[in-house]
């Protein structure tokens, strides 16, 4: 079957040719006037808004410049319900659905409105009805609808920080919702776990996550029984959700007394034995999914369910704390959650992660340390996370560091839409565009979530995709089913020459002063073969501006935050 | 962060000189074309004891339900391997018939009980350590493949596209390498929209930040790839057609390997490529998921190896995972994170049809921490043998910081270079 390797490689002698090192010289630049690109940070308000929101629009920047970031932040930390425009958009939105029957004949091919975003679990659970045996396309609707809602909210909602934090927590408590079991319960996870707790108390949040069907499915705890327990959830609980791997002392594998502080009941970190013991604590934490166990049959509701028959009831020792045998139902697991949620390593891990998100890939240690204090002081507060955010965002470092992070791809795309006041009709195609940039929208496979460092987002493939997405997303062709634009409407009346339009859009999209060289280069691009002061005909305006605005969003100024 | 200087050829000038056919082979000192290392990583912890197993070991049988075990008969009957370790009856998972054929044709060698000697059971720590090439330091700024590239003799370094991560993003093995490309589909690797964008972007990204370097790398490589893609009469890149009537199966690994085969045949001077294949974290109901993955691995490797029949001599393909899985299965019919694991090596100079390594046994006291297959072969010995015999880079001390006890398994033919344990490049 396998071809003979000795036939290999009859190569052309021309192959020895050496290549010159620099390609740049070989491509004549159309912007010869642009010598040395000048990259300066925008104003502190714009810096702040590009981190607290999915894109500082000129209107928002003007408003917040007047009232101050601090005042805006207080409002953002107390969001009201769903915005009217988002409600309307969601009620008007549709998504196509298409699938065949068992014999391959078309069964459903329609455009259907959204029905699952606000549906209670009892409705969603019908998707899992074993007798109905619905196809994947029906079950994955739940995930697809949550994606659509996240686009509307990120683009239009005034409660931008809630959206930013919902994305942060989805990434921290990652589940892969492209698994159909997880998809069907994903609207509940998004709404009643992630959004509900995004400014709340971490211990309460952690318990909601641990009892969510989405996480019970994703990290397999729903089948964890004595004995041996399934370690998956317990391990990631320590390593990713709470203490973090910086405090994993794997070299002390089974010598718990050797962990500093352990014999006093306050170990500074965890070992494999803690994972094993915690896994035992969570045995029997499952989903009421109608599963059978001997003569017992679990209810079939999709709710969290504790099944005592699977629980390992004997004594345990987690993080140096002894647990007596035969505790009441759920008590072992609740205690495990207390121990990890209130551990100092968890405060450090979470605060550092928040600072990495909001400041830079290498946040100043002083800000992290200050945040840790606030986090621990507010351990029992219902707004622990909000308090910590307030501290981080009010530090002077918050809006004075810039250019050390690039926008995450979802942020990048939403900021293009916000800068241009797009009318959007999200569909499944957006998910594919994001994935080309390395962003998997609610379907990242491993429990780490996406890395939040610049290196990760800047592979050559992703870099090209970041530029290409500008061309397709900002297109005014009828083939663009995702967004519609009327750029001309945003332009002041009577403004129609390349030189004026160019300056107007630089201000609007980049929100900073640029050098005369840069302005001239942009004018040259927009005028093409025409003159800088020669009006662009109204019927050509949207088309010409589309490619021009796309170029502005490809600049380092727009990519960085 | 300081990144390596970007080195790449000038496509337009070369095209003018070389005519329609552009070649960029790297050359070894003796003038033969450069060898290629392909690093396939099975993400999630592949259960090596369900892929290649001593089917009649009483401890193996006692600790595992039949669902997650290879057997010598019945539904899960494995494919016999000659030349197993310790005289035991090792068998491949029943869904891996292409691996069996490769093994029997002596192209594939199997190393067992190998891995990271650090005992971490964390996926992410284990991958960080393996990919950074260190036993302890997961904060090194460079991946082991980056240091491999950096320390190549300079005559080999100045190739056009020497390193590629197949996929949209780069694995940690290439961390800090600014010359490595990530490519998921060659025919789609291009800048869309206005024709003037490329030159304007060149003049916008001229600094030396990570972003500037990434942008320059992307722009230059787009031009390179586009120049090298075979075109039809309308100058449109032609769809890729595998050789030997190979049909790649439908799975992510196969798609990646097909892109890689296309790239190898484009003669870009490729030295090293990485490919990821995820989904191996089978904590529950392992049986079906594992069978699909194992079949995917087997069929994809089989198709790829046939497709590159003219290049097999130059290729060494290595398959590994961050760790193996627990000997004893859990009550979810799955397996938890373990330790020692199997590694596969495929290629022209591989002395295949044989298993390598020392089988430590599965008695309780033979297991690592009484639970997992022990590691008797440091994974770095395996990588190093490839570097020394196939990749002409003996700088083991630089590539694997702290490494100083290389032991050859001799799964490759040929002579090894003199080892350099110097920490410096």
Highlighted features:
heterodimer, A: 561 residues, mainly alpha, 26 helices, 7% strand, disordered N terminus, B: 425 residues, alpha/beta, 3-stranded antiparallel β-sheet, 13 helices
Q: Share of helix among residues of chain B?
A: 25-40%
Major sheet of chain A: 2 strands, antiparallel
CA-CA gap between termini of chain B: 18 Å
Overall, the morphology of chain A is: globular
Strand arrangement in the largest pleated sheet of chain A: 1-2
What is the β-strand count of chain A? 10
Number-wise, the strands of chain B total 12
Q: What is the average of the pLDDT values of chain B?
A: 90
Rg on CA atoms of chain A, Å: 27 Å
| H/E topology pattern of chain B | HEHEHEEHEHHHEEHHHEHEEEEHH
- Percent of residues in helices of chain A: 40-55%
Q: Biggest interface pair, residues each?
A: A-B, 91 and 105 residues
Kindly name the structural category of chain B.
alpha/beta
Q: Largest sheet of chain B at a glance?
A: 9 strands, mixed
Uncertain stretches of chain B: 1-32, 155-159
The parts of chain A where pLDDT drops under 50 for at least 5 residues are 1-33
Structural class of chain A: mainly alpha
Helices of chain B, by number, come to 13
- Give the integer mean of the pLDDT values of chain A: 92
């Amino acid at each position: 079957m396998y071809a003979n390797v000795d036939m290999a490689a009859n190569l052309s002698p021309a192959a020895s040719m050496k290549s010159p090192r620099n390609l740049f010289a070989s491509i004549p630049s159309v912007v010869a006037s642009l010598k040395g690109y000048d990259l300066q940070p925008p104003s502190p308000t714009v810096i702040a808004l590009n981190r607290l929101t999915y894109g500082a629009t000129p209107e928002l920047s003007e408003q917040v410049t007047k009232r101050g970031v601090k005042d805006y932040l207080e409002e953002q930390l107390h969001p009201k319900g769903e915005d009217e425009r988002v409600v309307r958009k969601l009620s008007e939105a549709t998504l196509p659905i298409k699938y065949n029957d068992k014999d391959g004949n078309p069964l459903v091919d329609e455009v259907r409105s959204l029905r699952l975003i606000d549906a209670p679990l009892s409705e969603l659970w019908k998707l899992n009805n074993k007798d109905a045996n619905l196809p994947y396309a029906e079950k994955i609707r739940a995930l697809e609808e949550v994606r659509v809602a996240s686009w509307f909210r990120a683009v239009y909602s005034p409660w931008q920080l809630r959206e930013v934090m919902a994305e942060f927590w989805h990434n921290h408590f990652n589940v892969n919702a492209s698994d159909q079991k997880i998809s069907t319960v994903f609207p509940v996870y998004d709404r009643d776990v992630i959004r509900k707790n995004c400014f709340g108390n971490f211990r309460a949040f952690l318990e909601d996550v641990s009892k969510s069907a989405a996480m019970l499915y994703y990290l397999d705890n729903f089948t964890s029984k004595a004995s041996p327990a399934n370690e998956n959830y317990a391990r990631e609980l320590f390593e990713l959700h709470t203490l973090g791997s910086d405090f994993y002392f794997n070299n002390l594998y089974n010598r718990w007394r050797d962990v500093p502080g352990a014999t006093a009941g306050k170990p500074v970190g965890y070992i494999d034995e803690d994972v094993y013991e915690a896994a035992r604590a969570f045995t029997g934490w499952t989903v009421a999914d109608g599963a059978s166990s001997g003569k017992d049959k679990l209810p079939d509701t999709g709710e969290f369910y504790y099944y005592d028959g699977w629980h390992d009831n004997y004594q345990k020792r987690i993080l140096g704390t002894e647990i007596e045998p035969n505790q009441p139902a759920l008590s072992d697991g609740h205690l495990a959650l207390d121990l990890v949620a209130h551990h100092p390593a968890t405060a450090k891990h979470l605060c550092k992660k928040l600072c990495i998100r909001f400041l830079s890939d290498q946040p100043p240690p002083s800000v992290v340390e200050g945040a840790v204090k606030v986090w621990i002081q507010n351990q029992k507060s219902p707004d622990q996370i909000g308090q910590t955010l307030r501290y981080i965002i009010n530090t002077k470092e918050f809006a004075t560091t810039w250019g050390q992070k690039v926008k995450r791809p979802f942020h990048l795309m939403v900021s293009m839409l916000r800068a241009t006041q797009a009318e959007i009709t999200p569909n499944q195609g957006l998910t594919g565009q994001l994935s080309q940039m390395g962003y998997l929208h609610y379907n990242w496979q491993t429990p780490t979530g996406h890395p939040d460092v610049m290196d990760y987002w800047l592979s050559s493939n992703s870099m090209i995709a970041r530029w290409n997405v500008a061309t397709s997303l900002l297109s005014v062709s009828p083939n663009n089913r995702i967004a519609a634009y009327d750029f001309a409407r945003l332009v002041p009346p009577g403004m129609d020459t390349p030189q004026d339009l160019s300056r107007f859009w630089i201000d609007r999209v980049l929100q900073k002063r640029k050098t005369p060289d840069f302005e001239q280069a942009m004018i040259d691009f927009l005028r093409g073969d025409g003159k800088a002061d020669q009006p662009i005909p109204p019927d050509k305006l949207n088309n010409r501006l589309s490619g021009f605005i796309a170029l502005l969003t490809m600049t380092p100024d727009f990519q960085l935050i | 962060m300081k990144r390596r200087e970007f080195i790449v050829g000038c496509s337009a000038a070369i095209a003018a000189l070389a005519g329609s056919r552009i070649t960029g082979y790297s050359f070894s000192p003796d003038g033969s074309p450069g060898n290629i290392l392909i690093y396939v990583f099975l993400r999630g912890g592949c259960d090596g004891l369900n892929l290649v197993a001593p089917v009649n070991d009483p401890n193996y049988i006692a600790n595992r339900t039949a669902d997650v075990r290879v057997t010598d008969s019945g539904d899960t009957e494995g494919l016999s391997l000659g030349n197993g370790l310790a005289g035991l009856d090792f068998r491949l998972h029943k869904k891996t018939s292409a691996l069996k054929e490769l093994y029997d044709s002596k192209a594939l060698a199997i190393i067992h009980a190998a891995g990271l000697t650090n005992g971490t059971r964390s996926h992410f720590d284990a991958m960080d350590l393996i990919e950074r090439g260190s036993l302890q330091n997961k904060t090194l700024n460079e991946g082991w493949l980056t240091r491999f590239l950096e320390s190549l003799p300079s005559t080999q370094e100045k190739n056009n596209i020497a390193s590629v991560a197949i996929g949209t993003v780069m694995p940690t093995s290439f961390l800090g390498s600014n010359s490595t490309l990530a490519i998921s589909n060659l025919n789609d690797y291009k800048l869309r929209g206005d024709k003037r964008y490329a030159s304007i972007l060149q003049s916008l990204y001229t600094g030396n930040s990570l972003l500037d370097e990434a942008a320059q790398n992307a722009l230059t490589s787009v031009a390179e790839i586009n120049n090298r893609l075979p075109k039809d009469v309308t100058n449109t890149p032609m769809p890729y057609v595998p050789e030997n009537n190979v049909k790649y199966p439908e799975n992510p690994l196969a798609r990646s390997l097909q892109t890689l085969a296309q790239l190898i045949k484009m003669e870009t001077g490729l030295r090293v490529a990485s490919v990821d294949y995820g989904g191996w974290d089978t904590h529950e109901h392992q049986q079906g998921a594992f069978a699909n993955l194992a079949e995917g691995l087997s069929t994809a490797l089989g198709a790829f190896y046939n497709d590159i029949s003219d290049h097999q001599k130059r290729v060494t393909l290595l398959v590994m995972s961050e760790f193996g899985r627990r000997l004893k299965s859990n009550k979810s019919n799955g397996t938890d994170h373990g330790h020692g694991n199997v590694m596969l090596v495929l290629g022209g100079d591989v002395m295949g049809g044989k298993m390598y390594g020392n089988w430590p046994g599965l008695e309780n006291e033979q297991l690592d921490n009484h639970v997992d297959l022990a590691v008797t072969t440091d994974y770095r010995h395996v990588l190093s043998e490839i570097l020394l015999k196939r990749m002409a880079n003996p700088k083991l001390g630089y590539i694997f910081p702290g490494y100083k006890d290389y032991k050859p398994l001799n799964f490759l033919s040929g002579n090894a270079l003199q080892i350099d344990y110097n920490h410096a490049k």
